[in-house]
Amino acid sequence: MTYKYDFLVIGSGIAGMSFALKVAHKGRVALVCKSTLDEANTALAQGGVASVTNLEIDNFEKHIQDTMVAGDYLSDIDAVRKVVTEAPAQIQELVNWGVEFDKTTNGSYDLHREGGHSEFRILHHADNTGYEIQQKLIKQVKTHPNIDVYENYFAIEILTQHHLGKFVTRRTADITCYGAYVLNCETGAVDTFLAKTTLMATGGVGAVYQTTTNPLVATGDGIAMVYRAKGTVADMEFIQFHPTALYNPGDRPNFLITEAMRGYGAVLRNGNGEEFMHKYDSRLSLAPRDIVARAIDSEMKLLGHDHVYLDVTHKDAEETKKHFPNIYQHCLELDIDITKDYIPVAPAAHYLCGGIKVDIDGQSSIRRLYAVGECSCTGLHGGNRLASNSLIEAVVYADAAAKHALAHFEHYDFREDIPAWNDEGTKHTEEMVLITQSIKEVNQIMGAYVGIVRSNLRLDRAWNRLDILYEETEKLFKSSHASRRICELRNMINVGYLIMRQAKERKESRGLHYTLDYPPKELKN
């Protein structure tokens, strides 16, 4: 079946839905998500949204400087300034859509402070801010007459001149996106979605790792699709491991203990109950995430433990319950009373700072294709994302992409000579065990060799192991009917390759990329 839309949005988090809402008054929108609307990284974001709102103590320059420091001065200053200065207006847009942020008794926003921030500037909704945003955007999307939602539809490939028989390379100057081949996961049919403009908003890559805070749909699909279409992908070596995921063996994804808890006053302790952050950074538990994650990793290895502890027992118990009700309840179900007990935590893959390279308008290197949210690389995060800068980046760049798309989409035509998906000669695979086992192997390889601390030897070993999986998977893919699992495995292998390749190319320890072969010249203080 062939569908035609003015705007094709692939992904249903804050980036995809806010873009859809901003363009739907001018044209028809297809919103494609591979599971359901509420399964996205956005919904799991606990901490909040960073924005300068208290002008008595805070200003744009402070937020800009904090972002540059956290990013190890690899951030694009234009992207940083754009996000920081446009944040207040986009916060108001979220409020207009019904999002509620906590306020104090005097009516001002109840602001949190998180690692790397010099001021209290994190707007939040208790400790489930992302869920609040996701639910309010879903309500808006479902009631909009110009937005058609396709749940359980999996985008396989974007459509370019390649599908018209043209030989396309990374040096081809005019690669253009005409839509996507999309798998209907319920029927098994692969439909053709033709679009005047396409937005990639597929989220991150956390599921490439065994230990992750991301929902397991975060398999890097958009990044892999764009890479295979010869688009530009950058900064994939910068994988942020959240320092404090709840340590509970068997959990996947891992439950996140928000950084706001450390901003609230929680203290990190090693397996012996001793504070340790003073050995690594003068900012102690509120140092940026890359420093805290490596410090925890070091303490775990020194003592031979699987986790460290987060201690909030010295704070007022009722205040703790008030600020972190969901964390309190979740831990209590595991017989951990956070007002009395230390919380066992360990780092977990959390956020990708790189992705599909885009300009200030959210345009990728492929014409008529935009990328927004975690799958994109705007330059904002540089070598390391500052806490709570991700949700605001998503809405700011969704706004920029929407404005650019609205100004141009009417000049484009549908490319109706795109052929239908061809699966002649393929069959339904009865070897699902091969796919499942290969996914486990990818997780093991990435966790063991491409984690918080790397080396050329580890990366080479990962490269060799992954290369075997790539050959096996491509052979299976070409002989099988398309399925979500085989496509996800393909994408995970592509993403793992990109992370390793770009990690090998960076001949320094910088930001989130720490390699034993190029240790930093001096410790950060």
Notes on the protein architecture:
There is one protein chain. This protein has 525 residues and is an alpha/beta fold. The protein contains 14 helices and 18 strands. The chain has helices at residues 14-23, 41-44, 60-70, 77-96, 129-142, 221-228, 260-264, 289-303, 317-323, 325-332, 390-408, 432-449, 456-479, 484-505; strands at 2-10, 29-33, 49-50, 122-123, 147-151, 153-159, 179-184, 190-200, 233-234, 239-246, 267-269, 308-311, 343-352, 355-357, 369-371, 376-377, 453-454, 514-515. Strands 1, 2, 5, 6, 7, 8 and 15 form a 7-stranded mixed beta sheet that branches. A 4-stranded antiparallel beta sheet has the order 10-13-12-11, covered by helices on one side. Strands 9-14-16 form a 3-stranded mixed beta sheet, covered by helices on one side. β1, α1 (14-23) and β2 (29-33) form a beta-alpha-beta unit. The mean pLDDT is 93.
At a glance:
This protein starts with a strand and ends in a 10-residue tail after the last strand. The chain is α/β, with parallel strands linked by helices and about 525 residues long. It is about 35% helix and about 15% strand.
